[in-house]
Amino acid sequence: MDTALRQGPAAGTERPAEWSEYDDPETGATVTRLTDTADSGNWHLYFTENGWDDGGRRLLIQSDRMGSRQLHSVDLETGEITQLTDLPHPIDGVTRAGERALFWCGDRLAVLELDSLRVRELYERPEGYGGSHTAGTADGERVVVAIAAETEFNREFENRGAWIKARMDANPHSQIISVPIAGGEPTVHVEDERWLNHVNASPTRPDLVTYCEEGPWEAVDRIRVLDLASGEQWRARPTDEGEAVGHEYWLADGEHVGYHGWRGTRDEPDPFFGRVRYDGTDRREWPAPDLYTHVHSNGPERVVCDGTHRGAPFDLLWERREEDGGDGGSEEYAGPWKLAHHGWESDDDAHPHSRLSPDDSQVVFDASEDDADAGSDVYLVEVPDDVTELPRFDLEGFEPATDR
Fold first, then answer.
1. Does the CA dihedral 259-208-122-117 come out positive or negative?
2. Which residue in 13, 24, 34, 33 sits closest to 84, CA to CA?
3. Smallest Cα–Cα separation from 129: which of 97, 106, 98, 102?
4. Which residues on adjacent β-strands are paired with residue 62?
5. What span, in angstroms and rounded, lies between the C-alpha atoms of 178 and 190?
6. Global pTM?
7. What is the H or E stretch that residue 167 is in?
8. Which residues pair with 263 in a beta bridge?
9. For residue 249, what are the β-bridge partners?
10. Is 6 domain-assigned?
11. 301 part of a folded domain
12. What is the spatial distance between Cα 270 and Cα 288, in angstroms, rounded to a whole number?
């Protein structure tokens, strides 16, 4: 393998704080805008990934402020921003795995030591293949990804949904592979002539990952679990006719998988969010505002949702109902409440990809302030001690706009 991947001189550069604080004009929640750059983009890690680092003192973000998307961290005590990578290609598919970050840089799978900023190459994709989001196993020993053959058409379709369906119908050759982080040859765990994507690793069980059969959600049985040790694989949340689920993620216990979806059709959906144990048991589901959203929770106590670009441009929050004399909670939720406005009003805007902090006290999200063409920035909102003081969202009376 060519080992030409090297850090440039900007790695380790510290830049002054850009942050500003305000109270959300409708909810009163305290919001901190962590980044503020004109004509460039800043994004927190994808909502499936825990970007809090250094015991919660820092937050990993991506930014193309220097002309190429690279990894940075924001000091949450001072606001200072440190550039962590200065690599020859934009990075993507970032996950944090202990004191390391894993990502793609061009066609190279790489690991970054967050303390020394040393970069090592682990694997090079075959020519003509793309790679999924990276996932680090709970024991810190392996990185797991999906690779899939590129198709002859590009994304120049009427809309993203049409492109996704066309790529699914092309049945690209795909593999789920794992690569030792210490170095070594890859292991092929799954190989198929269908589009495989989105690998997520259990944060507590080193042998378990999820991956998805990619495509329009109503056309696939999406959420798959793979046991890396045995090779066994199964569906965590099978879907019947008229059901669709996706945007899966692991809860902090490493036992349960969260998701959202809908029953019915895209035009007349009955949306919901839910969680299920990795073996398909303990499945529970609750109403959601729309099918176009993302949902995250660390455990059963609190849930955050993006709202929807079809008429609810704010983060929504649910809390588990307390039981008198019980074990401190039930399987029903109170809420939702409006937490913070993010202005997601078009699919072209930055998607919030809202995620709760590990202690459930904050929510991070991305937003385009006024103009999606001007890029996006990263925001952090404090969850108030008493969420019942937030304004309620009328979930039962909400009807998503159909013209967006």
1. positive
2. 13
3. 106
4. 43, 71
5. 10
6. 0.95
7. helix 160-169
8. 243, 270
9. 258
10. no
11. yes
12. 8
φ/ψ of 218, rounded to 5, equals -75, -10
CA 298 to mean position of chain CA atoms: 13
Q: Which amino acid is at 221?
A: D
**pLDDT tens-digit readout, 299-342:** 999 999 999 999 999 999 999 987 644 454 568 999 999 999 99
Within a 10 A sphere around the Cβ of 72, how many other Cβ atoms?
22
Summarize pLDDT for 163-179 with one digit per residue, the tens: 899 999 999 999 999 99
Tens digits of per-residue pLDDT, 140-165? 999 999 999 998 766 666 678 888 99
Q: Residue 379 falls within a domain, yes or no? A: yes
Cβ proximity of 335 and 392 under 8 Å: yes
* Token pair in block for residue 303: 């849930």
Q: Is residue 229 part of a domain?
A: no
Bridge-partner residues for 53, per DSSP?
58
Question: Residue 367's domain spans which residues?
Answer: 19-47+294-404
Q: Do you know the residue count of the chain?
A: 404
What count of other Cβ atoms lies within 10 Å of the Cβ of residue 166? 14
Question: Which residues lie below 8 Å from residue 61, measured CB to CB, with a gap of 6+?
Answer: 34, 35, 42, 43, 44, 45, 51, 71, 72, 73, 74, 378
The dihedral of CA 188, 190, 196, 201: what is its sign?
Answer: negative
Whether the Cβ atoms of residue 381 and residue 361 lie closer than 8 Å to each other:
no
And the tokens for 360? 């459930």
Domain count within the chain: 1
Q: In angstroms, rounded to a whole number, what is the distance separating the alpha carbons of residues 100 and 103?
A: 10
Separation of alpha carbons 110 and 90, rounded Å: 12
